[in-house]
Specification:
The protein has eight helices and no strands. The longest helix has 20 residues. The two termini are 20 Å apart.
């Protein structure tokens, strides 16, 4: 399963094997071997693949059918705004969020819900 999912997501993200190999730190031949089931990625490479393809190791391994790592994307969005603490669980942090940031977060959540309904 991991082999098919790596290949499918790589193509969906419009990465060549060389592009994915560069992001993971392996050769294009290694990526080719993974996709053809000749070899399997080790745990360290699996984590790098998941990060590069914006997914989770659970999805790649077939333990989940959720392709997107939505919480990581939300965390990255908040970090670009300067929020490094886990805002969702920090009531005081919410008081510091500007209205335009709340609107952007709300729009992002709406986008995620639309994507889920499209699938």
């Amino acid at each position: 399963m991991v082999h098919e999912r790596i290949r499918s997501l790589r193509k969906e993200r419009r990465f060549t094997q060389s592009m994915l190999a560069e992001k993971v730190g392996v050769s294009p031949q290694v990526v080719s071997n993974w996709e053809r089931s000749y070899t399997s990625p080790d745990l360290e490479d699996l984590a790098k693949i998941a990060h590069a393809l914006h997914t989770t190791a659970d999805y790649l391994l077939g333990l989940s059918d959720e392709q997107e790592d939505e919480m990581r994307e939300i965390k990255q969005l908040l970090e670009t705004k300067g929020y490094t603490k886990p805002v969702f669980f920090d009531k005081k942090a919410w008081f510091g969020i500007q209205p335009e940031d709340i609107k952007q977060i709300d729009n992002y959540f709406r986008f995620l819900l639309q994507q889920k309904n499209i699938s």
